[in-house]
Specification:
By secondary structure, the protein is mainly alpha-helical. Strands 1-5-6-3-4-2 form a six-stranded mixed β-sheet, covered by helices on one side. Strands 7-8 form a two-stranded antiparallel ribbon. A hairpin with a 2-residue loop joins strand 5 and strand 6. The chain is extended and about 135 Å long.
C-alpha cells in the first residue's frame, strides 16, 4: 500500500527529516514519526544487516510483529526485527519502521551519508549522542563507526588516575553518571565504573534533593538496588581508609615530629622551611573534611601544587605521601564498590584488533583472499636440521599452546562405573540390586563399629599419654587451688623482677633543693600589677624606653601604618585618563575584576588540542560543515574573532549548501557584514527558512523586514512559518486579510491560517471560511470548535432570549456533528484532550462551547459502572484548575444521567454557593429537592439560603414541603423551630416542639425543648421537660447535663449535685458530665471532692485528655503549681500525643526553653492546632508579633471550627494589631462559623447570648482568655 509522506496508519502525522530526506532517495525509514529517505547503496556498503534488509522481496503484509517462519536466529536481532516489519511505501518508495531513536539515527546518518571516511573527531557530539551511535552501530553491525564512537567516548569519560583533574567538571551531573554506568555495563567497559561510582558516592546532594526523593528519582530508577548498596558500602569503606591513612600526611600530626631546620634561598632572601613552624597549616579537621568530600581531587592537587615555602626535602616528602595515598585510594576503588567480583558480559571481539597483534607463526599474507604462498631456497637458506623437541616445546609455551595431550581416563574414578554403563537403561532389577548392596554395606559397618570405636579410643588415650596438653599437666595444681584460704591468697607476693638485675632506682624518691627564685616566681605568677613603677611614672605609661634610652610612641606607629596603607591603595587605584586621576570606584572595582577572563594552563592546553583536532577534521573531510563550525567556535572561545571569521568563511566556500554554517557565519560577523553573508547564502540555499528568518531579523525597519519575507515567499511559498511571520508584521487588518487569503490558497492544509482568516472576517464570511476549511482539512477539531464559538458569538447579538436560546442550541449540534465527522475520518481524541479543549474555550470566554464539548465527549471511553466516580474526579480536577464553567458542565451532565444522586446535587450546590449567584443556587436546590425529596440536608440548605436572603415566608414554605416528604425528620422539625424562634414567633416555636415530641419523639427534640424553655427563663417548665425526657431516654447524657445546669441556675446545688451523680451513674462514659460535676464541687469550695470525681472519671475513662487537663486546671486554680505540674506529667505519660496537654505543658517551662519544648510538642502531636496556637502565644509574649500573626493563621487554617483559637487571635490583634487586622480576623471567623472550644461553647451556650453570631461572640470569648498564654 502506498501512503503520502505526511500520513501513515490511523492518521498519525509523520514528519520528513530536515537533513536526511533526499527527494531522489531509494528507501525510507520511519523512526519515531520521522521519515528518513536515503540511498540504500550507501547503507548496503556499510552494514550487512541493511544489505540483507534491502534484498528482501517487496510484498504486502499486515502490521503484525509475529516472527516469520524464515527469520534467522543466527543473524543480528536488528535483521529479524526489520524482516518482520510490514512492507509499506511512501511516495512510491519502500518504507520500514525501526524501533530506534530518531536523534540517534540522524547522528549516525550524519556520519554515513557524506562518504565512507570516518571523521577523526566529534565536533558537537555529547556522550549521549556517541552512546546512541555506538548502540546503533552494534545493532546494525557497523564496526568501524562503532570503534570510532568508543574511541571518542574513551576520550570524553575519565577512566584513569591521570583524568582526575577533569573529574569534577565532567561528573557534575548525577543523571549523566547513572547513564555512564548503564552504558559501561552494556558495552562491557568496566574501566569507567570505579570513578563513576566514586563520584556518585561523593556527590554533593542538597537538603531537598535526597537520593530517594523526587529530584534524583531518575538516578534511583536507573540504578539497581545492588548498585545503591555498592554506593553506600563504598562511601563507608572510603571514609574508613581516609581516616586511617590521613594522619600519616606531613601536615597532620606536625606537633609530634621534629621541626625542619633547613633554610633555603629564594632570590636574595633566606627563608626558613615551613616545616619549622608549628602553625600556618590548614587545621586537621578542615583537611580531613576536604579529603572526605573529594579525596582524589584534593590529593591530586597536593601532588601537582605543593606549598612553595617548603624546602626540597620536605617538598619531596609532602608530594610522595600525597601520591602514595592517592594511588592507594584509586587502586582500592574496585574493592570498595564491590566491582572486582562483578561479572561482565563477554566482550564483543574487535575486528581491528589484529592490527596491533603479532602475526601467527604459520601466517601467509594473502592466503585468505585466494593467494597461494610459496617459499624459495633463497628465503630459507641452506638445508639444516629441524628444530629440537625442546625448541618446539618452548615455542608452544611462548604461544600458549599445550605441550602434552591430556589422557581422558587419567582422572577416572575406578569406583565410578558411570562411563561403562552410561548408555544402558536403569531398570527395576538394577535398583533392587543397588538396595541389596547398600543394606549389606550398612550391616557390615554396624558389625565393625564397636571394634572401630574401641580402637580409636585406645589410640586417643595413647596420644594424650605421650603428648599431654599443657592444661592437663597443671590439672592437679588447679584442683589444689580450691583449698587456698583468703589470707594465703592475700599474702601472695606481687609479680616483679626478683632477680635483682638491671633494677632501676625510683627517681621519685630523690629530693632536690629548690632555689628561692623559683618559689618566688611561682608565688607571683598569678599576681596582678595595679601600680606603675618609678621609671614608668617618670617617663609616662605609654612611652616605653628602649635599651639605648630612646622612646617608642605606639600612636605614631599606628598613624604611619594608616599612611602606608593609604599610599598603597592610591598606587593600586591607577589612572583613569593619562594618570591624572587616582580614585577607585567602590561599586565597580570588584565587578571589573570579575569580568577579566583569565585562562588557566589547562584551558589553554585544551584549546590548542581542540584546534589541532578540528584542523585535522576539516582537512580530512572539508565537506563536513559541523567541523568548520566547531573550529570557528574554538577560535571564538579563545578570543580570536578574526581567525574564527576566516575559518567560517572557508567553511562557507567548502559547504555552500549547508544552512547551519551560513547562520554561524552571520552570527560571528557584525550586522552589516551578516546581511551580505546571508544575501550570498540565499543564492546557494534558497529553500532554507532559517536563513530567510535570520535575514529578516537583521533588518531594523519594518518595510525592510517585509521586503525580505516577501522575497522568501517567492522561493518558499509553502512555508507556514514565513506566512505567519509576514502576517504578524502587518498593522492594518485589511492587509493581513489579503495575505491570509493568499496563504490559505497556497497552504490549504494549515489550520492556523484558516482560523486566523476566520477571526479577521465578518461573522457571515467567517462561516463560509470555516466551511471551506472544514472541507480542506476534515481531520481538524480546531475548525469545528471555532465554528461552535462563532455560533455562540452570533447568538449574543440576538435581541430576545428565545432567539438566543435557539441559536445556542446550534452550538451543541455543531460540536456534536463535529465529533461524528472526526470519527468518520478516524480522528480519535481522548476524553482528556476534549476536556482540555473545553477548558481552553472557558478561558477564552466561550462558556456555551465549553458546555457543548463536555456534553458531546464526557461519556467517551468510560465504563458504565465507573461513570459517577470518573465524572466526580473530572469535576475536582477542573475545580483545582479554577475552571468553574467546565466543572458545572460536567456536573450538569452527570446529574442528567444520575438525577437521584444526592451527593452530586450537594456538590453542585456547593459550587454554586462558592462561585455562583443566589439565583443559580436556588435553581440547583429546587431541582435537587425535586429529584431527591428524602435528602434532608438538601431541604435544610434550601430553607437556610432563603432565610439568609431575607425570604422568611419562602423558608417556611420550603420547610412545609420538607415536612410532607419527611414527616418524622428530626432535623427538619428543629430547623422549623429555630426559624420561628429567631424570628420572634415563640409561641409557634413552642407549639412546633410539642408536635415534634409527639411525631418524632427523639432525645434531641426533648433536649431542644428543655433548652428552649430555659432560654425563655421558664425554669420550671424546662425542668419538667427534662424529667419527662429522662424517663424515656435515661442514658442520654445531655439531658442529665441540662438538668444539672437548670438546677444550678435555680441555685439548688444539692439537687444539681444529685442530678450529676445520677447522670454519671447512668452515663459513665460521658466526659462532659464528669467535668460539670467536678466544676460544681469546685464552685462550692469542695476542691477535694472535685479531685476525687476527676480521679474516678479517669479510672472509668482512661486516656482522656480533657479529664487530665481539668485536673491540672483544678490544681492551678487552687494555687498548687507544683502539684499541677506533677499531674500534667502523669497525663502526658498516659496521653503521649495529646495536643491539649502539650499546649499546657509549654507554659510550665522556663521562658528560655519554651521554644524547644514547642518544637518537641509539634513533632509528638503531629502539628496539633492547639499547639500551633500556643506557639503563636509564645511569639506574642516574646514580642515577635509578625511571627505570632503567621502562626495564628496556621492554627485557624488547621482547625477553623475551634472558636478559642479565633478568640485568642482576636485578643492578640486587639492588643498589638490595627483595626484593619481585627476586621480581617473577624471576617475570617464569620466565614468559618466555629462551634467548638471550651471557652467558645461556654459563652455561646450562655442564655444571655442566644441568637448571637460569631461577630458578636468573638470579642466576648476573647475577654475570657488570658493575654499571651493558653486559653482558659
Amino acid at each position: 500500500m502506498s501512503l503520502p509522506c505526511d500520513t501513515i496508519k490511523r492518521g498519525s502525522t509523520l514528519i520528513p527529516h530536515s537533513r536526511h530526506y533526499y527527494s531522489d532517495g531509494t528507501f525510507c525509514f520511519i523512526v519515531e514519526r520521522t521519515i528518513f529517505r536515503i540511498y540504500q547503496g550507501l547503507l548496503s556498503r556499510r552494514s550487512e544487516v541493511m544489505k540483507d534488509l534491502f534484498s528482501l522481496p517487496q510484498q504486502e503484509s499486515s502490521w503484525s510483529r509475529s516472527p516469520s517462519p524464515g527469520s534467522d536466529i543466527n543473524r543480528p536481532p536488528a535483521y529479524n526485527q526489520c524482516q518482520q516489519q510490514s512492507q509499506v511505501t511512501i511516495d512510491g518508495v519502500p518504507a520500514v519502521t525501526l524501533d530506534d531513536k530518531a536523534d540517534d539515527f540522524a547522528d549516525l546518518l550524519d556520519i554515513i551519508m557524506p562518504g565512507p571516511i570516518v571523521p577523526h573527531c566529534p565536533p558537537t557530539y555529547t556522550f549521549d549522542q556517541l552512546a546512541g551511535i555506538a548502540h546503533l552501530c552494534d545493532k546494525y553491525a557497523i564496526d568501524d563507526i562503532r570503534d570510532w564512537a568508543l574511541l571518542w567516548i574513551d576520550e570524553l569519560l575519565p577512566s584513569s588516575i591521570d583524568d582526575i583533574p577533569r573529574l569534577t567538571a565532567f561528573w557534575g551531573n548525577a543523571c549523566l553518571i547513572a547513564r555512564v554506568i548503564t552504558f559501561a555495563r552494556k558495552t562491557n567497559l568496566p574501566k569507567y565504573l570505579p570513578l563513576a561510582f566514586y563520584t556518585l558516592a561523593l556527590h554533593q546532594w542538597s537538603a531537598d534533593d535526597k537520593f530517594d526523593s523526587a529530584a534524583h528519582l531518575y538516578v534511583q530508577r536507573a540504578l539497581s538496588i545492588h548498585d545503591q548498596q555498592r554506593i553506600q558500602a563504598g562511601r563507608v569503606s572510603l571514609q574508613q581508609l581516609l581516616l586511617e591513612k590521613a594522619p600519616a600526611l606531613p601536615d597532620l600530626g606536625l606537633s609530634s615530629r621534629s621541626p625542619c631546620t633547613e633554610v633555603y634561598s629564594r632570590g636574595a632572601k633566606s627563608i626558613q622551611c615551613r616545616m619549622h613552624h608549628q602553625d600556618g597549616w590548614v587545621g586537621p579537621m578542615e583537611l580531613i573534611g576536604a579529603l572526605l568530600r573529594g579525596p582524589l581531587e584534593v590529593l591530586n592537587d597536593r601532588v601537582d601544587h605543593p606549598p612553595r615555602d617548603l624546602c626540597t626535602k620536605c617538598t619531596l616528602k609532602y608530594v610522595q605521601a600525597s601520591s602514595l595515598l592517592r594511588e592507594e585510594v584509586y587502586r582500592k576503588l574496585p574493592d570498595f564498590f564491590l566491582l572486582s567480583t562483578e561479572r561482565m558480559a563477554p566482550a564483543k571481539p574487535n575486528k581491528l584488533a589484529f592490527l596491533t597483534q603479532v602475526a601467527p607463526a604459520s601466517y601467509v599474507a594473502g592466503l585468505g583472499r585466494g593467494a597461494s604462498g610459496f617459499t624459495t631456497r633463497s628465503d630459507i637458506g641452506p638445508a639444516r636440521e629441524g628444530p629440537s623437541a625442546e625448541a618446539v616445546a618452548e615455542a608452544q609455551t611462548r604461544r600458549g599452546e599445550e605441550t602434552t595431550e591430556v589422557d581422558a581416563e587419567a582422572f577416572q574414578d575406578p569406583d565410578n562405573e558411570t562411563g561403562l554403563f552410561a548408555g544402558m537403561v536403569y531398570e527395576a532389577d538394577d535398583e533392587e540390586a543397588d538396595n541389596i548392596y547398600e543394606s549389606v554395606d550398612a550391616k557390615m559397618d554396624e558389625r565393625r563399629r564397636v571394634r572401630r570405636e574401641a580402637r580409636e579410643a585406645a589410640e586417643a588415650a595413647k596420644v594424650r599419654t605421650e603428648q599431654p596438653k599443657l592444661q592437663t599437666q597443671f590439672a592437679d595444681l588447679k584442683r589444689g587451688l580450691s583449698a587456698v584460704t583468703d589470707s594465703e591468697w592475700e599474702n601472695l607476693p606481687e609479680v616483679g623482677n626478683l632477680t635483682g638485675k638491671k633494677r632501676k632506682r625510683d627517681l621519685r624518691e630523690r629530693t632536690y633543693a629548690v632555689p628561692d627564685s623559683v618559689i618566688a616566681g611561682d608565688r607571683d605568677r598569678g599576681a596582678m600589677e595595679n601600680a606603675l613603677d618609678d621609671r614608668q611614672q617618670k617617663l609616662g605609661g605609654f612611652d616605653t624606653p628602649s635599651m639605648d634610652g630612646t622612646l617608642t610612641n605606639l600612636v605614631e606607629i599606628g598613624q604611619a601604618r594608616d599612611n602606608l596603607l593609604s599610599l598603597k591603595l592610591d598606587q593600586l587605584s591607577g589612572s583613569v585618563a593619562g594618570g591624572t586621576s587616582s580614585s577607585i570606584d567602590p561599586k565597580g572595582y570588584l565587578t571589573d575584576l570579575n569580568s577579566v577572563a583569565l585562562k588557566t594552563e589547562a584551558e589553554i592546553g585544551d584549546i590548542k588540542r581542540a584546534r589541532m583536532l578540528f584542523d585535522s577534521l576539516v582537512k580530512s573531510n572539508p565537506k563536513h560543515a559541523p567541523g568548520w563550525i566547531a573550529a570557528a567556535c574554538v577560535e571564538e572561545h579563545a578570543g580570536r574573532m578574526v581567525a574564527a571569521r576566516k575559518i567560517i568563511k572557508m567553511g562557507c566556500e567548502k559547504c555552500p549548501t549547508n544552512e547551519d554554517i551560513w547562520l554561524e557565519a552571520a552570527r560571528l560577523h557584525p550586522n552589516d557584514d551578516a546581511k551580505v553573508i546571508l544575501a550570498n547564502a540565499v543564492q546557494h540555499v534558497s529553500q532554507s527558512v532559517k536563513i530567510w528568518l535570520t535575514a529578516a531579523e537583521l533588518e531594523h525597519e519594518l518595510k525592510s523586514k517585509k521586503r525580505v519575507l516577501r522575497k522568501a515567499l517567492e522561493h518558499i511559498p509553502n512555508s507556514v512559518i514565513l506566512w505567519k511571520q509576514i502576517i504578524s508584521l502587518e498593522t492594518e487588518s485589511a492587509d493581513a486579510l489579503i495575505l491570509l487569503s493568499r496563504a490559505v490558497e497556497v497552504l490549504p492544509h494549515s489550520v492556523e491560517l484558516w482560523l486566523a482568516l476566520a477571526r479577521l472576517e465578518t461573522p457571515e464570511r467567517a462561516k463560509k471560511v470555516l466551511n471551506t476549511a472544514r472541507k480542506a482539512v476534515p481531520t481538524s477539531h480546531e475548525i469545528w470548535i471555532a465554528a461552535g464559538r462563532l455560533v455562540e458569538q452570533g447568538a449574543g447579538s440576538k435581541p430576545d432570549a428565545a432567539s438566543q436560546a435557539k441559536e445556542l442550541e446550534l452550538v451543541d449540534k455543531t460540536i456534536e456533528l463535529g465529533v461524528k465527522e472526526l470519527r468518520k475520518h478516524q480522528v480519535m481524541l481522548t476524553r482528556d484532550q476534549w476536556l482540555a479543549e473545553a477548558e481552553r474555550c472557558e478561558s477564552e470566554g466561550s462558556l456555551r462551547t465549553c458546555e457543548a464539548i463536555v456534553k458531546a465527549t464526557v461519556a467517551m471511553d468510560v465504563e458504565e459502572e465507573d461513570r459517577e466516580s470518573t465524572w466526580v474526579g473530572d469535576v475536582e480536577s477542573a475545580l483545582a484548575k479554577r475552571k468553574i464553567g467546565t466543572a458545572r458542565a460536567i456536573l450538569s451532565y452527570a446529574l442528567r444521567v444520575f438525577p437521584d444522586k444526592r451527593a452530586l446535587w450537594r456538590r453542585a450546590a456547593d459550587i454554586e454557593k462558592a462561585h455562583g449567584d443566589r439565583a443559580s443556587l436556588d435553581a440547583i436546590l429546587s431541582q435537587a429537592v425535586k429529584y431527591c425529596p428524602q435528602a434532608e440536608v438538601l431541604w435544610l440548605m434550601f430553607a437556610k439560603e432563603k432565610w439568609t436572603a431575607g425570604d422568611v415566608p419562602g423558608a417556611r414554605e420550603t420547610l412545609e414541603e420538607a415536612f410532607k416528604a419527611n414527616p418524622e425528620s428530626e432535623q427538619i422539625w428543629l430547623a422549623a423551630v429555630k426559624l420561628e424562634a429567631e424570628n420572634g414567633e415563640l409561641d409557634v416555636a413552642r407549639e412546633l416542639l410539642k408536635r415534634a415530641r409527639k411525631v418524632a419523639d427523639t432525645e434531641r427534640i426533648w433536649m431542644k425543648s428543655a433548652v428552649f424553655e430555659r432560654q425563655q427563663h421558664h425554669l420550671e417548665e424546662a425542668l419538667s421537660t427534662v424529667e419527662a425526657g429522662l424517663k424515656k431516654f435515661p442514658t442520654f447524657p445531655k439531658l442529665h447535663m441540662l438538668k444539672g445546669q437548670i438546677l444550678t441556675d435555680a441555685n439548688d446545688k444539692a439537687a444539681a449535685r444529685m442530678a450529676y451523680a445520677l447522670g454519671v451513674k447512668a452515663c459513665p462514659k460521658s466526659v462532659p458530665l464528669w467535668l460539670l460535676s467536678s466544676r460544681l464541687e469546685e464552685q462550692d469550695g469542695r476542691a477535694i471532692k472535685a479531685r476525687s470525681l476527676l480521679e474516678k472519671a479517669r479510672l472509668v475513662n482512661p486516656k482522656e485528655e480533657a479529664l487530665w487537663a481539668e485536673a491540672v486546671a483544678v490544681e492551678e486554680r487552687a494555687g498548687a503549681t507544683t502539684q499541677a505540674n506533677a499531674v500534667l506529667a502523669r497525663g502526658l505519660q498516659e496521653c503521649p500525643t495529646s495536643g491539649l496537654l502539650y499546649s499546657m505543658s509549654i507554659w510550665y517551662h522556663p521562658k528560655p526553653v519554651r521554644k524547644s519544648r514547642a518544637v518537641d510538642a509539634l513533632k509528638k502531636t503531629r502539628d496539633d492546632p492547639r499547639v500551633i496556637c500556643t506557639i503563636a502565644c509564645v511569639f506574642w509574649e516574646d514580642g515577635a508579633y509578625e511571627k505570632a500573626r503567621t502562626w495564628f493563621g496556621r492554627a485557624t487554617t488547621a482547625d477553623p471550627d475551634n472558636g478559642d483559637t479565633w478568640a485568642t487571635w482576636w485578643k492578640f490583634e486587639q492588643s498589638k494589631g490595627t483595626p484593619e487586622h481585627r476586621s480581617i480576623v473577624q471576617a475570617k471567623c464569620v466565614a468559618a462559623d466555629p462551634h467548638h472550644g471550651p471557652a467558645w461553647q461556654a459563652v455561646a451556650k450562655n442564655v444571655a447570648n442566644v441568637g448571637n453570631g460569631p461577630a458578636v461572640l468573638l470579642p466576648l470569648v476573647a475577654n475570657t482568655i488570658r493575654s499571651g498564654t493558653h486559653t482558659s
